[in-house]
Amino acid sequence: MAAGPTGGSGGAQTAWVLNLLTDLAFNLLIFFVVCASNEPDTKGRPQQVPSADKEKANEQKPQNIEVTITRTTVAVNKEEVPLAGLTANLQGKLAGKNKPEDRIVVVKSATDTPYSQWILVTGRIEQAGGVITLELEEEKEVRVK
Amino acid sequence: MKFKRRKLEITPPYVSMADIAFNLVLFFLIMAKTQDNSDLEWEPAKDTGAKTIQNAKVSITVDKHGKTYLNNSREPVGQRDLADRVTQELGDKPPPDRIVLLKIHKDTLASTFQPIMEAVSQAGGEVVHVIEEERP
Description:
The complex is a heterodimer. Chain A is α/β, with parallel strands linked by helices. Chain A has a domain at about 55-135: Nucleotidyltransferase, domain 5 (2-Layer Sandwich), CATH 3.30.420. Helix content of chain A is about 40%, strand content about 20%. A 5-stranded mixed sheet of chain A has the order 4-3-2-5-6, sandwiched between helices. In chain A, β3 and β4 (about 80) form a beta hairpin. The longest helix of chain A has 27 residues, at about 10-35. In chain B, α2 (about 80-90) runs parallel beside α3. Chain B is built from 3 helices and 7 strands, in the order αββββαβαββ. Chain B has a domain at about 45-135: Nucleotidyltransferase, domain 5 (2-Layer Sandwich). Chain B is elongated, with a radius of gyration of 25 Å. Chain B has helices at about 15-35, 80-90, 110-120, and strands spanning about 45, 50-55, 60, 70, 100-105, 125-130, 130-135. In chain B, the strands form 2 sheets. Chain B has a 4-stranded mixed sheet, with helices on one face. In chain B, β3 and β4 form a beta hairpin. By secondary structure, chain B is of the alpha/beta class. At the A-B interface, α1, β1 and α4 of A face α1, β1, β2, β5 and α3 of B.
């Protein structure tokens, strides 16, 4: 801290003022460093995920495209498709469908599907213009006697 | 013989006071910044199409051990409580402020992350997956 003499020779006074200025400059430096150390902007992908209503999902089953994801494979309407060709495949199936409700793609994932695989597949579905709906497995209560 | 006493001029060190106050401000600023869960271990999934997201008030992190954390909490949240907790956090906020950042570790299984998305959807949140932009 810069606490100095209230009087004294000219040299001491100058040294004290310099000391003060150094303190001030250092504090300002810390202040700006702290302010600038904000987290970088988050980058993410917004996704419209309609509520996975089981009854609705069942209703939608016949006409909507169904994409099944497992740990290593992707299937469109139970037909296995390589990930690289998924966008083209879905674009073909969604062609001519203009209403959002017609572009619904029901995504079923095996419980052991890793998030990285899921993100890649859902990204391709969105690229193809599909509207993602998740189909979750129903919770079943099993009573053990 | 009388000696004159010298009067000591003592004034409070006002300059030092300002210094102390400023340092305290800095101290609390740094403390406020370090109280987050940035030390949680998670690695984002990679894909293209990432956009810059601003104004996200709520975040859910799933670390590499599969534990779920809400905002900057250090306590893991159970999946059954998540929808209620997210609803509380979002309150009556208008749509642009209903963004929920999902920071999910890339190896997390669907059995863990799908119920989280369902919970956010139930709470009326807008899902944003935090991913790392993949370079071609």
